[in-house]
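pasting for ref. prot 1 ->
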Amino acid sequence: MDNQALKRKAELLRKKLITLIYQGGTGHTGGDLSVLNLLTVLYNHTLNVNPSDPKMPDRDRFVLSKGHCAEALYTVLCDKGFIDQTELDAYGTCGAHLGGHPDNSIPGVEINTGALGHGLGVGVGMALGAKMDQKNWKTFVVMGDGEQAEGSIYEAAMAANKFHLDNLVAFIDRNGLQISGSTENVMPLESIYDRWTAFGWDVKQINGDDIDSIVAALDAIDWKGGKPHLFISKSTKGLGVGFMENVAKWHHGVPNAAQYEEALHDIDIRIANC
């Protein structure tokens, strides 16, 4: 899929995501929107996965460590054919299969996530397993920036460096906001670049709002460099819905009917111009 098609795909998924949250009555809307472009590129350009065989042995592994943004993942998995639309339609209802965090009973989900700080450690184990078994599949982990306060992340970072896991790619969705407000007020994170470089990782900064930037970064990964890879993905909380952008209260929020229509209007304009 070329970049223009990916941009259109991202907007169509954004519309589907907003509808999922509105109809389900729940969701971490701001973070879902900030990470959606990245997930769109991963699943439609980079990852070797097969919805007809979700457990194929040589598949790439993906871990959404910021599991509270499950709605974005569900939207992408449904679009790829891992999840049926009827399951998406049931989201937020009593007895629905899809919950507020991913679990591995869902096709395409490798591991239960949502307890922040655990995803990278799991990803390190997956990548190390591939190295030990001399397999070529890759592991990808997406973390939140508020999640960076969790100490277990840095234990995993040290292990990834020690074992030269150049088959491991991690992302920090750097939207600058968490449930309590600005990340720099809650627990200052800068300089993320210097910190992860000191841990021995191959660190790059990308524009997570820009499809072209994401594609170029992923295509340029050096899989033989002996270092794990980290992308600091600078993004916008609530991306693509004007009244949500860079507003902390949309970390967890559901649009009302008028806001829902306004959001769809914004997105439909961009779809028409794609």
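and prot 2 ->
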Amino acid sequence: MKITLFALNSSFTHTNLAVRYIAYSLKQQSINADIAEFCLKDKHENILFDLYEKRSDIYGFSVYIWNRTEMLEFARELKMLLPCSKIIFGGPEVSFEDEGFFKKYPFVDSIISGEGEDAFCEFCNNPESYKHKCIKGSANKESFKNSPILYDIYPAKGDILYYESSRGCPHRCSYCLSSLTSGVYAKSAEKTLSDLLEFEKLQSKPRIIKFIDRTFNFDLERAKRIWRELCKDDYTLNYHFEICADKLDEEAFEILAKMPKGKIQLEAGIQSTNPETFKAINRTTDNGRAIENLKRIKSFANIHIHADLIAALPYEDIASLKRSFDETIGCCDKLQLGFLKMLRGSHIRLNAEAHGYRYTHTPPYTVIENKYIDFKGMYSLFKMADVIDRIYSSERFEYTCEYVLGHAQSPFEFFEGFTNTLDKDIERISQNDLRLMLFDYLSKAFADSEALQRLALDTLIWENKNPPALFRCHYTAHGKESDLDIFTFNFDCEHRYYINRTKHRVIIK
């Protein structure tokens, strides 16, 4: 029996952990499987031909909101070319389908919902008995707790490798599919640290090890044990953790303060600061404490912090979102203004009418209107989110944004106002043009010239050649010291800024 596991990632930098788990589970049963891993930017016909050439008996498709449409098309075409092959879908995007799915898509033979390792093995042992049936996967906790990193067995090309040290989530947020499972189970701290050392041995080292745990610090003592060891020189990579920031204690702060700069990244889902919204989505985080904790970590200046907000949550109108944004932006290096997705199977989707939700009925099911924000308002937020990504979260305007956060009456209104001045999507604006547009907006928004000087500083850091002439009146050049340009800015006469353009950094003396 020949088996192919098909992954279609959203970007070439990403990898698919699920197909590796399935392949390893099959290997434990003495069944070999190939992995065919592509990204959405690969040519459709190249992907289809690769799948066709394998002529496998069984094809397992890993289906998510970002690839559902493409996966259905590949399955339709592959079934036409290889009608005797079995095609089985799995993944969060199909885990809440029923047998009506097969009437609409008869070229798919079966679906696995939930955890698929054991269920896929079961299917392969007797595929004919599962024709047009949904197979409920179940957790094999001991198998997971002892599983290896998998990339040594099944290599990946991406520079971001995913690692899972726990499954499940302690929260029950109504918009998240994790709310439909109960409990959390995890690898021990010792096993996790041992696994992380295995990443160090890979022939091609990744740039980031991204933990996909829903809440890494659900067990704070375990989290602290792992963080404490990561401070050591044995661990050289960059590690990304999604945490619940209000659950940190003094010992955690002490450990994080000692972490070597750039070794870890923290991501925290703030989502909203509106208590009524939190009650409606069944979220219990203390966001006031979470924001203060993140600000404290940010003051250490050694850890990159990513915070998330979600637009279109219940009871959050523009005024409420503005408060959430203004309260959150100062606690992070990157702020993602995301938009509520009405995921299949989620509680919030089942009760969509209660809040007047209207959303795209093709993936990713993004909300486009509700009782609190109409489509015009939502469209403006879509554009503003892109501006925030380009200006604040890119960190190419670090010194400018530092001034804005300290002097603007409302950072939300600042970004909203700048967005409204643009006559086209920000993705179509060159970097130089964007700086000039921002220069013009800053000169009108603030009475003094410090914001313009800071924009000039950001420009000097990121421009490899001479900066635009408009910025040259806002600094004094003093020559060079090795590869560092030396500039003095009027807003801070006590320091000189030594700018290493090749490394995009500033040394202040």
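The radius of gyration is 25 Å.
DSSP finds 18 helices and 20 strands in the chain.
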